[in-house]
Write a structure and sequence with these properties.
The complex is a heterodimer of chains A (264) and B (490).
Chain A lengths: L1 E5 L2 E3 L5 E3 L4 E3 L5 E3 L1 H16 L4 E7 L5 H8 L5 E5 L9 H13 L5 E5 L9 H10 L2 E9 L8 E7 L4 E7 L2 E5 L23 E4 L1 H4 L7 H4 L24 H13 L4
Parallel strand pairs in A: 1-6, 1-8, 6-7, 7-13, 8-12, 9-12
Antiparallel strand pairs in A: 2-5, 3-4, 9-10, 10-11
Helix pairs in contact in A: 3-4
Chain B lengths: L2 H9 L7 E2 L2 H6 L7 H5 L10 E3 L4 H14 L2 E5 L16 E5 L6 E5 L4 E5 L4 H10 L2 E2 L12 H6 L7 H4 L2 H4 E7 L5 E4 L12 H4 L8 E8 L1 E2 L6 E7 L2 H13 L6 E5 L1 H7 L8 E7 L3 H17 L4 E5 L1 H8 L6 H13 L2 E12 L3 H15 L6 E8 L2 E2 L2 E11 L7 H20 L17 H5 L3 H11 L17 H4 L1
Parallel strand pairs in B: 2-4, 3-4
Antiparallel strand pairs in B: 1-2, 5-6, 6-10, 7-11, 8-9, 8-10, 12-14, 12-15, 13-14, 13-17, 16-19, 17-19, 18-19
Helix pairs in contact in B: 10-12, 15-16
């Protein structure tokens, strides 16, 4: 089975420091991480490959070349091929243009399933998977929290989808696009010690506009028609910090606190 | 010899109930706290011993060692199982663990001559409890006191948290009994002092089970005056100030039982209720009233000398509260084990080194800088700091402490995190002329630096091994580097 995983590297916004005095995010030293939903999707693919070693996994990411190191770390986790779509003309592309660029690359590929995340930590629009479904004429499901591994045979997938109040099961013919959520709990394996410095450069391909041949006016900021009407920072509240002694009085304070929150 | 023949051989020396071949117990005996995370996750990469045996006398230990020596069977000596450096880890297919469980008698408490004799398998806590009943103490209080046993404490050159007053175990041991691989039983008599040639106690003390098996020890005891305890605490400017104050106290001849200085990061995890993100300096004075008063004056005077580095005085009741929660019990160890099944997190890993007063700050700063700049997984570190907790007239120790999130498979943790960190600490320490192991012993994971640690004196260590364990059956890989063991280290 051939699986393509679409992944994105995002700033680790869940672990941003917040400067409560200046009321701003501290952006220094923020690291880029694999988007958690995408990591869950890739983790499921690797689980399949673990059980069926003939499975071929390609990760595809549209990003600057600075993430090559992180893509190489995915290859060291038993991914077969990594493709980085990177071109200076693509910088500033909105979700629709991003989907068009990805679709053009994917149209030329043969695959049984595309796995990706539902949400991205940074933009969080969830546009790309659905737009890709439209552009590639494939069924697409978001909020997938479970894929039945025993029925995932290259012709169909049986999945559980979180619809907020209910969980529904769907059977979908393959190829299709399945957008997984991190709540699926599929966990990306670590790189084995022996593979930490494995040379994987032969399995890395960089695709640029000279391969995809877009008119430069169609892509990047110029080609992107999305207009952002307003942005606002998330409001953060400083939590009260109480220090108690390790004595009866301190224990009582902790007990009453837990009780007020309904934990005891 | 195969496994079956080995068990049959053991049965000629021991009864059936003295031989344990339970799978879970053998798995547990395969490694110590060095690989506790991998052990908890059931991914240990070392062979299991064939059996754990429980002799009940020095004579039986003698027969066991002769048998193992004849048939080239690796022997691991075991006490309370609190080893942290791989000393109890097994690297050989044919291995037996000789556990001191049945050597469990307190033989004599001699208050007039101020000494107590106990077999190797007596828990330190048990001896301490008996002594407290009559107003005495061993003065030895490692964190592992409730669990650790006398034989193991002596075999690893243990140190307690009140060592600045009472000394390390090497200062406490009066005499001992030990058994060598050829079956010879040596008894070193209990005298106050002697000049009868080299001090042969030190062949056994700290041998880590590589030369002989300790079966009995006699230690000094001390009068105990808990009513006189005094505590001091300070928030201070930096580690260097703390080291200077410790030195001032020590070089003027004072011996507080506790004299410690903590970096900001380490203070945060020990003194959450008062640290204020500052370095912490603490003292405790104990002993008879007059000595405590003099020690207190010495501490106060030293602090006054460096008052520009003192940021705040800490209520002494906070230090007393800390003092009352010093030890970890078997339950703490079990809880930690359970926690490691659920969390990808390692808290409280340490590497302890020592050097003279002048050198310790250099090593500290050099290590911290190298770790921050060179350690590949620095971003996974959730804490990096240290404290000095055992001082002497000519120097002190530094206990580097680090916590980290584990972003690798359990079997790779030590290779990816602890060992590279320990390597930096050991390299910097040896470069500056310090000792790479203050009190945990060398175990199996610092053996690659044993030669460098001892320099030209390694000759003496090597000759001891050749003389007492010529066939190399005693704790293969501990202290002495073995090429065959590299696959378990790197």
């Amino acid at each position: 089975m051939n699986i393509i995983c679409l992944v994105k590297f995002v700033p680790d916004v869940d672990n941003f420091m917040y400067d409560y005095d200046r009321n701003v995010l501290v952006r220094e030293n923020v690291k880029m991480i694999l988007n958690p939903d995408d990591a869950a999707a890739l983790a499921f693919a690797l689980k399949v490959k673990d059980r069926h070693p003939s499975t071929f996994i390609e990760v595809v990411s549209m990003a600057p070349k600075s993430i090559i190191g992180q893509l190489e770390d995915l290859l060291r986790r038993n991914v077969d091929k990594a493709t980085l779509i990177s071109d200076k003309n693509y910088v500033g592309s909105d979700t629709y243009i991003t989907s068009k660029i990805l679709a053009k690359y994917l149209k030329a590929k043969s695959f049984d399933c595309i796995l990706t995340g539902t949400h991205a930590l940074d933009g969080d629009t969830s546009h790309v998977p659905a737009q890709l479904g439209e552009l590639l004429s494939l069924a697409q499901l978001s909020n997938v929290i479970k894929i039945d591994e025993s029925k995932f045979d290259g012709t169909q997938a049986v999945v559980d989808v979180d619809r907020e109040k209910v969980i529904s099961s769907y059977r979908v013919g393959l190829p299709a696009i399945l957008s997984v959520q991190k709540e699926s709990k599929y966990k990306l394996p670590h790189i084995k010690f022996k593979n930490l410095n494995l040379n994987v450069s032969a399995n890395m391909t960089i695709v640029s506009n000279s391969d995809l041949n877009f008119d430069v006016n169609e892509v990047g900021i110029e080609g992107s028609l999305t207009k952002v009407s307003r942005t606002y920072p998330k409001k953060m509240e400083k939590k009260e910090h109480i220090v108690v002694n390790n004595d009866d009085e301190g224990i009582e304070v902790v007990y009453q606190f837990l009780k007020s929150k309904g934990y005891v | 010899m195969n496994k079956k023949e080995l068990i049959e051989g053991l049965l000629t020396i021991l009864s059936v109930d003295q031989i344990n071949t339970n799978e879970d117990d053998l798995y547990d005996a395969s490694a110590d706290r060095y690989k506790k995370y991998a052990k908890a996750r059931k991914v240990l990469d070392v062979p299991m011993p064939i059996a754990i045996v429980y002799p009940n006398s020095a004579e039986v230990v003698s027969k066991l060692l002769m048998f193992c020596n004849e048939h080239l069977i690796n022997v691991i000596a075991r006490g309370g199982k609190t080893a942290t450096e791989g000393g109890l880890e097994n690297w050989k297919e044919l291995t037996i663990v000789i556990d001191a469980e049945n050597l469990n008698e307190i033989i004599k408490i001699d208050a007039y001559n101020m000494q107590a004799t106990a077999q190797a398998g007596v828990r330190l806590q048990e001896l301490e409890d008996e002594l407290r009943k009559i107003g005495y103490t061993t003065g030895h209080s490692p964190q592992s006191k409730p669990v650790a046993k006398m034989g193991g404490l002596v075999a690893t050159r243990s140190i307690g948290q009140f060592s600045t007053l009472y000394g390390g175990i090497e200062d406490m041991v009066v005499g001992l009994e030990c058994v060598f691989p050829d079956g010879h039983i040596s008894r070193i008599k209990n005298v106050s002092r002697r000049a009868g040639g080299p001090d042969i106690r030190h062949i056994a003390i700290g041998n880590e089970g590589t030369l002989c098996y300790i079966t009995e020890v006699t230690v000094k005891i001390f009068k105990y005056f808990p009513e006189n305890h005094k505590f001091y605490g300070y928030l201070i400017k930096d580690v260097d100030t703390g080291i200077k104050i410790l030195r001032e106290v020590m070089v003027n001849g004072y011996r507080p039982s506790v004299a410690r200085t903590y970096s900001e990061e380490d203070a945060k995890q020990h003194f959450y209720h008062f640290h204020k993100d500052k370095c912490v300096l603490i003292f405790m004075a104990e002993g008879n009233k007059e000595i405590v008063e003099a020690t207190c004056r010495g501490i106060e005077h030293a602090v006054e000398q460096f008052k520009e580095g003192i940021l705040e005085y800490v209520d002494s009741k906070h230090i007393e509260s800390w003092f009352n929660h010093l030890n970890w019990s078997q339950k703490d160890i079990d809880d930690e084990f359970e926690g490691m099944l659920e969390k990808d997190y390692h808290a409280g890993f340490t590497t302890e080194i020592s050097a003279d007063w002048e050198t310790i700050p250099k090593i500290y700063h050099s290590v911290i800088e190298r770790v921050r700049n060179e350690f590949a997984r620095a971003e996974d570190l959730t804490m990096l700091g240290g404290h000095s907790s055992h001082s002497y007239i000519n120097g002190t120790n530094m206990y580097f402490v680090y916590n980290y999130n584990i972003n690798c498979d359990p079997e790779d943790e030590m290779r990816i995190y602890h060992h590279p960190l320990q390597t930096i600490i050991v390299e910097e320490t040896l470069k500056f002329g310090g000792s790479m192991c203050h009190h945990h012993g060398i175990g199996k994971f610092r053996n690659e630096w044993t030669k460098e640690e001892h320099g030209s004196a390694y000759y003496m260590l090597e000759k001891l091994k050749e003389a007492f364990d010529p066939k190399g059956i005693m704790n293969f890989g501990t202290i002495f580097f073995q090429e065959e063991g590299v696959k378990y280290q790197k």
